[in-house]
Amino acid sequence: MTLAFISGPHGAGKTTLVKLLEQEGIRQPKLVTDAPPADYPPYERLVYKLCQRVLENVEVLTTTEGITLGNRCIYDGDAYANAYVQLGWITSSEEFQLRTLARHLFPPLLREPYAIVLNPSFEVVRERLRNRWEKTEQKWREHDEDYLRAACTAFEQFKDKPNILYLEESDVKKAKEWLYSLT
Question: How far apart are CA 80 and CA 170, in angstroms?
C-alpha cells in the first residue's frame, strides 16, 4: 500500500489532477462529508475541518490498496490556519492551539504524510474559480480575493518540505512518477 494526499487552495486544480491520475490507475476513495455551516466563526470552522480531516484520513488508511491518493491532510489545516492569522480572523494563540490539536489527533503516520501540494499562482486560482462559478455554486469565501491570496501564500510554506511534491501547475506525468517512486 502506498498512501499520499493531495492538498492546495480552492481552485488549484486538485480534482482535475485526481481525475487524470485515476486514469493512470491511482485511486482516490470517495468520502462524503459535510462542510461546516457557513456561519461558523473562523476558529470553530478550522476545528470542524481539522476533525473532519482526521476522520477522513483514518478512513483512507483502512481502505487503501495499491497507490491511493487521499483528499487533503494535515498540511491543509496548517495552511488555512496560517492564512486565517494573516487575515486577522484568528489569533496566533488560536493557530498554535490548532497545530497542537492536529499533532494530537492525527495518528503518527499521518502527521507528516506524503502529499502533492498543488499551488498555482493567485491569478490562476482566481480565474479557475470564476470559471467554476459559471457551472457550480461558490464555496465558502471563494469570492474573497484577500482570502484566496492568503491561502495561496500559506501553501507556499510546503515548497521545500520533505515528503511533498510541490507543483505550481498540474503535471500528471511528474505526479505519477513521484507517486510510483514511493512504492
Answer: 21
Its pTM stands at 0.91
Whether the Cβ atoms of residue 118 and residue 155 lie closer than 8 Å to each other = no
Residue ranges of the chain whose pLDDT lies below 50 = none
Q: What confidence score (pLDDT) does residue 64 get?
A: 63
> Which DSSP category does 68 fall into?
E
Q: How far apart are CA 10 and CA 14, in angstroms?
A: 8
| DSSP bridge pairs for 67 | 2
pLDDT for the residue numbered 34: 83
Contacts of 104 (CB under 8 A, 6+ apart): none
- Strand segments, DSSP code E, in the chain are 2-7, 67-71, 115-118, 164-167
3-state SS, residue 86 = helix
